[in-house]
Design a protein that fits this description.
CATH class: Mainly Alpha
CATH topology: Na+/H+ antiporter like fold
Largest sheet: 2 strands, antiparallel
Strand content: under 5%
Shape: globular
Strand order of the largest sheet: 1-2
Structural class: mainly alpha
Oligomer: single chain
Low-confidence stretches: 1-5
Number of strands: 2
Mean pLDDT: 85
Distance between the termini: 25 Å
Length: 340
Amino acid sequence: MAEKSKVQLGFFEKYLALWVLLCMLTGLFLSQFLPELSIAINDLQFAGISIPIGICLFLMMYPALLNIQLSELKKLAKNPKPIILTLISNWIWAPLVTAFLAYYFLAGNDQLIVSLILLGSSPCTAMVLVWGSLANGNQEQNVTNTTLNTITIMFLYAPVVSLLTGIQNIQIDRITLLLSVFVFIGIPLVLGYFSKKFITNRKGHKWFQNTYRPAVAEIAILALLATLIVLFSLNGNVLIQNPHEMIRVSIPLLLGFLIIVGLNLLVTKFAGLRYREGIISVIIGSSSHFEIAIATAISMYGLDSQAALGTTMGLFWEVPVMLSLVFIGRKLGQRGFWKK
């Protein structure tokens, strides 16, 4: 059953954009004064994957996949229009718009192009629950949509990324892409489902929701921030010498957000959705699953790659953009943009 209570931003979530910025700066500082630390962490490898970073990436993914509620999928037939519109945005125009902008603005830099495609092809399944609650949207629809996204990303993420990179003949390791989906979505999904079932049977649903989930969510953010520190420390010299790379990748990211949000606002309005359904469709249809994008970029290209940095910039901009969307959506709702 979807949660009825009002969700509030936790301490880490509320200032996530600030923590990301501080971690970027800390990583750049370490790259200049203590580069051996990050190199040593990255060198602890098994089968080419950094063990500490692999653990951090798993911890980033696991809490998001605790959100899956298969029983909610039964409600699809009750009001399918907003769900269908969101799926179209997630799997058709968001990936296409992002890929087109990446081709145009990042021509000649295949890794940065791939980083944007990884972001644009990954519908969000975690933070949208918070954004939707802050916007006072329909949380039943939110839970149903995020559950459906979790399932569809298992089957559609690798094919969509492969198709969009193939259009420009960008060579990617498709085996690693498939393995990333299995390792960072499939395994946490299974563990999330069974651990949730086990914990709720032993401790109760209330303890799971109010104690366990918030605790692992904060661990996930700490794991994300630790990964960012190592990522930026390994890339520090390149970034300090070429700061324009972060600006270059930010332009199509922000323009993409603007186009996709605007398109979703218009579509939900002309489709005749009410505010509570419309705002959820816009939020989910305009956000990305930056955790899987970062994890996949690191798996395919390494922690010290431009692809990893490109997906990180997606995280950096998504938080303020989505908070702004919550504010704008509420204002539009008050002015009758959607049906009452």
